[in-house]
Design a protein that fits this description.
The structure holds two protein chains of two kinds.
Chain A: E1 3-13, E2 22-33, E3 38-42, H1 49-57, E4 64-69, E5 72-73, E6 84-87, H2 99-108, H3 118-131, H4 147-159, E7 165-169, H5 177-194, E8 197-202, H6 205-211, E9 214-219, E10 222-227, H7 229-234, H8 239-244, E11 251-258, E12 261-264, E13 272-273, E14 280-286, E15 291-293, E16 299-308, E17 312-318, E18 328-332, E19 343-348, E20 353-357, E21 363-364
Parallel strand pairs in A: 3-8, 3-9, 6-7, 7-8
Antiparallel strand pairs in A: 1-2, 1-4, 4-5, 9-10, 11-12, 11-14, 12-13, 14-20, 15-19, 16-17, 16-19, 17-18, 20-21
Helix pairs in contact in A: 2-3, 2-4, 3-4
Chain B: H1 2-35, E1 36-37, E2 48-49, H2 52-59, H3 61-94, H4 99-111, H5 114-125, H6 134-141, H7 154-182, H8 186-194, H9 199-227, H10 231-237, H11 241-244, H12 249-258, H13 265-293
Antiparallel strand pairs in B: 1-2
Helix pairs in contact in B: 1-13, 2-13, 3-7, 3-9, 3-12, 4-7, 5-10, 7-9, 9-13, 12-13
Classes of the chains: A alpha+beta, B mainly alpha.
C-alpha cells in the first residue's frame, strides 16, 4: 500500500506553562512511501519520529494535513479501520496470555461479516508464528521468553491481521547487540516475504542504513532528507545529515573558499580546488575515509593517536581549524603512520569532502559527485 | 559460620519475643481454653477436656444469630463494595478534569472516624420522638411509608448495616484500584486500539486480568475484614447487639468475655476457634480460585 503524507503537522500544547505556546512535534511532512518498501524514520531522540508513526497509525490525530493509504484518505479514520499493524518499542504483549492467545487477539476482535471461525483464527495465528519462527513456543507466556522472541511475537501479532502497512516503533532498541543484528535481518526477511509496506522508527543510523530501502532523516520535527541509504551518506543535504550518518562521524572544519580554492581556517595552502564556489567562509565536512595519507598531501595535522583495528587503522589527529572533537581518518593499515611520527599529511578524496553554508548549514555543491545525475 | 547463625538469631530475638508473647502464646491459649470444660475464671481450673464448649456455642441462639448476620454482611458487602469501587475507580481513571478533587472526595471517608460516621448514619436513619430521620423524610416525600432503620424490622437494620459497611470500606478499595488502573501500561490499550478491540473486551481481556492481583487482594482482605466486623455494628446499634439482633461473631466473642452476660472465656474461645475455621476455609477457597484467575 502506498502511503502519502501531505502537509502533516502535529502540535502539542507546551507542558511548561510559563513558556506557553505549542511544541511542534511534526512539522509539515510531505512525502510518499512507495508500495512494498521498507522505510526508516531516522533522527535523534525527541525529533518527532514516534509522533509521526503514531499519526500514521491513527493513535494520534494530526493538527493539520492529510494521510492517504493508496487513494483513500485515512486522516480521520480510527486506527482499527486503517489496516495497520503496530509493533511497540516495549512489545506490549499481554502478559497474562500465551503466545498463541496474543497472536490470536487481533483476529478475535473482528465483528460481523469479518468474523472468523475459531479454527481459522488458530490456523492464521499459527501461520503468522511460523513466519517469525516461533511456532514451537505457542503455549509459553511472554515472561518465559527472551527479548528477541518477544519481539517476534509482537511482529506476528501485528502481521496476523494482514495489515496494509506495518509500523515498528524502535523495534530493536530493547535487544542486546548480537540479537539486534540478527533481528534486523529478520525484519528485512519478513518484510521481503510479505511485501507489506513497512515504516520503522529508529535513532540508530546503522540500523536504518542496513535494512531500509529509503531513509527519512528528521530533526526537530522537520524532514532533512529522504533518500536511499547510500545516497543519504554520500550526498547529505545539509550539515546535520552529514554529521548524523556515519561512524566514525564526519570531520567538520572551519574553512574558506577563495578564488575557487578551498582553505582550512588559518592556513595558506589550498587543500582542494572547488571551482564555482563563491568566496565565503564555510563548513568543510570530510569523511574519515576521505583523508588519504600522502607525504606530499596539502593537509598537515599533528598526530594524536593511532588505533589499530585490524583491516583498517583509525588515526586520531589535531588540527587548529577542526570543529569536531576528535577528528579522525580511517586508513588502510599498510599506510598507517609509523611509530614515533608526530605529524601526518593527508590528501583529500573530493567525493568525500562536502561543503556547507556557514549560517544555514545547507550543502554547497561544487561538482564533487562522480555520478551526478 | 556458626557465629553468624547466632548473630542472626540475636537480631531476630526482639521480634520473636514480641510476637511470641503477644501473638503465638495467646493463640495457643485460645485453643486450650476452647477445649477446657467448666473452666473457672477465678480459680483458673477446669473439670476436663472435651467439646462441650463448642456444642454449647453452636446451640446458643445468640451465636447462630451472630453467624447468620456475619454471613449476610460478608456475602452482600464484599462483592458489592469491590464492584462499586471498581466502577468508581474506572470512572476516576477516565476523567482528566478535577480528577484530584474527586479522588480526595472519595478518599475522605477513609480518614473519618468510624464512630463519627456512625453518628451521621444515625441522624440519617434513626427515628426519634422529634423527627423520623432524613431518609424516612425522603421516603415519605416520595409517598412511601417510613420505617425505623435503627430500631425496626430486621431487614431494615441489615440494610443500614450493609450500606454503612460498604460506604466505610469503599474509599480504601477505590484508592487501591485507581492506582492499580493507573499502573497499567498505556501501550496495552494502544495495542488493543490498533486492533479495534471493543471497550467491553478491553475491560474483560486486558484491564481485568492486569489488575487481578489487586482485586484478589481486596477480596481476601475484604472477606477477612467483614468476618471480623464488630465496631461498625456498635457505632450504629449501640453495645447491646444481642438485643438488637445485630450481633456478629466477633461481637459474640466480646460479649462472652466482657459483656453483661460475660465471664465465659471458654465459650468465647470456642466461638473464636469456629470463626477462625470459617475464615481459614474461605481464604483457602479464595486462594484456589485465584490460582486460575489471578495473573501476576
Amino acid at each position: 500500500m502506498r502511503v502519502n503524507l501531505q502537509h502533516l503537522t502535529k502540535k502539542f500544547p507546551n507542558l511548561n506553562k510559563k513558556v506557553g505556546g505549542d511544541v511542534i512535534a511534526v512539522n509539515d511532512f510531505n512525502f510518499e512511501i512507495p508500495d512494498g518498501k521498507l522505510i526508516g524514520l531516522l533522527g535523534p531522540s525527541g525529533c518527532g519520529k514516534s509522533t509521526a508513526l503514531n499519526l500514521i497509525s491513527g493513535l494520534l490525530e494530526p493538527t493539520e494535513g492529510h494521510i492517504f493509504f493508496g487513494d483513500d484518505e485515512v486522516t480521520h479514520l480510527p486506527p482499527e479501520n486503517r489496516g495497520v499493524g503496530l509493533v511497540f518499542q516495549n512489545y506490549a504483549l499481554y502478559p497474562h496470555m500465551t503466545v498463541l492467545q496474543n497472536i490470536m487477539f487481533p483476529l478475535q476482535n473482528l465483528k460481523g461479516e469479518a468474523k472468523l471461525p475459531r479454527e481459522e483464527i488458530i490456523r492464521r495465528a499459527t501461520e503468522a508464528a511460523k513466519l517469525v519462527q516461533i511456532d514451537g513456543l505457542l503455549e509459553r507466556k511472554p515472561s518465559e521468553m527472551s527479548g528477541g522472541q518477544q519481539q517476534r511475537v509482537a511482529i506476528a501479532r501485528a502481521l496476523v491481521k494482514m495489515p496494509s502497512v506495518l509500523l515498528l516503533d524502535e523495534p530493536l532498541s530493547n535487544l542486546d547487540a548480537r540479537l539486534r543484528l540478527q533481528t534486523r535481518e529478520e525484519i528485512r526477511r519478513i518484510q521481503k516475504e510479505t511485501g507489506i509496506t513497512t515504516i520503522f522508527v529508529t535513532h540508530d543510523q546503522e540500523e536504518a542504513m542496513s535494512i531500509s530501502d529509503l531513509i527519512v532523516v528528521m530533526k526537530d520535527g522537520m524532514i532533512q532528507q529522504i533518500d536511499a541509504p547510500q545516497e543519504v551518506y554520500d550526498d547529505p543535504a545539509n550539515l546535520f545529515v552529514a554529521k548524523f550518518l556515519g561512524t566514525p562521524a564526519i570531520n567538520v572544519f572551519h574553512g574558506e573558499a577563495k578564488g575557487g580554492e578551498l582553505y582550512l581556517a588559518g592556513e595558506n595552502t589550498p587543500v582542494l580546488s572547488v571551482p564555482g564556489v563563491a568566496d565565503q567562509t564555510l563548513w568543510v565536512g570530510i569523511r574519515p575515509e576521505g583523508l588519504i595519507p600522502d607525504p606530499a598531501g596539502p593537509l598537515c595535522c599533528s598526530l594524536r593517536n593511532v588505533e589499530v583495528m585490524g583491516r583498517d587503522t583509525s588515526v586520531v589527529f589535531d588540527h587548529p581549524a577542526a570543529d569536531s572533537e576528535n577528528p579522525r581518518a580511517i586508513v588502510a593499515s599498510a599506510r598507517r603512520p609509523k611509530a614515533g611520527e608526530t605529524q601526518v599529511r593527508f590528501s583529500l578524496d573530493r567525493e568525500k569532502v562536502h561543503l556547507f553554508q556557514k549560517d544555514t548549514e545547507e550543502r554547497i555543491r561544487y561538482g564533487e559527485q562522480r555520478h551526478e545525475e | 559460620m556458626k557465629n553468624n547463625k547466632l548473630k542472626g538469631w540475636l537480631y531476630l530475638l526482639p521480634a520473636i519475643l514480641f510476637l511470641g508473647f503477644f501473638m503465638v502464646y495467646p493463640l495457643i491459649d485460645v485453643f486450650i481454653y476452647s477445649a477446657e470444660e467448666g473452666y473457672n475464671f477465678v480459680t483458673q481450673t477446669s473439670k476436663g477436656v472435651g467439646l462441650y464448649n463448642f456444642s454449647y456455642v453452636l446451640r446458643d441462639p445468640y451465636f447462630m444469630q451472630a453467624v447468620k448476620n456475619t454471613f449476610i454482611i460478608v456475602i452482600i458487602t464484599v462483592p458489592l463494595s469491590t464492584g462499586f469501587a471498581l466502577l468508581i475507580a474506572l470512572a476516576l481513571n477516565s476523567i482528566t478534569k478535577l480528577k484530584e478533587l474527586f479522588q480526595t472526595i472519595y478518599f475522605l471517608p477513609y480518614v473519618t472516624n468510624t464512630l463519627a460516621v456512625g453518628l451521621v448514619f444515625m441522624i440519617l436513619f434513626r427515628k426519634t420522638a422529634y423527627t423520623d430521620g432524613m431518609v424516612n423524610l425522603l421516603i415519605q416525600f416520595f409517598g412511601g411509608e417510613g420505617v425505623d432503620f435503627i430500631d425496626g424490622p430486621y431487614w431494615a437494620k441489615m440494610f443500614v448495616m450493609c450500606f454503612y459497611t460498604i460506604w466505610v470500606v469503599l474509599p480504601f478499595k477505590v484508592l487501591i484500584l485507581t492506582s492499580a488502573l493507573a499502573s497499567v501500561n498505556q501501550d496495552y490499550y494502544n495495542a488493543a486500539k490498533i486492533d479495534g478491540t471493543s471497550k467491553g473486551r478491553i475491560f474483560r481481556r486486558i484491564t481485568l486480568p492486569m489488575i487481578s492481583p489487586m482485586i484478589f487482594y481486596l477480596v481476601i482482605t475484604g472477606f477477612i475484614g467483614a468476618f471480623k466486623a464488630y465496631s461498625d455494628q456498635v457505632a450504629l446499634f449501640g453495645t447491646d447487639l444481642n438485643a438488637a439482633g445485630m450481633n456478629t461473631m466477633v461481637g459474640y466473642v466480646y460479649d462472652m468475655l466482657y459483656g453483661n452476660a460475660g465471664g465465659y472465656p471458654s465459650y468465647a474461645s470456642a466461638a473464636a476457634v469456629i470463626l477462625f475455621a470459617i475464615v481459614l476455609t474461605i481464604t483457602c477457597v479464595n486462594l484456589m480460585v485465584s490460582k486460575k484467575n489471578v495473573h501476576y
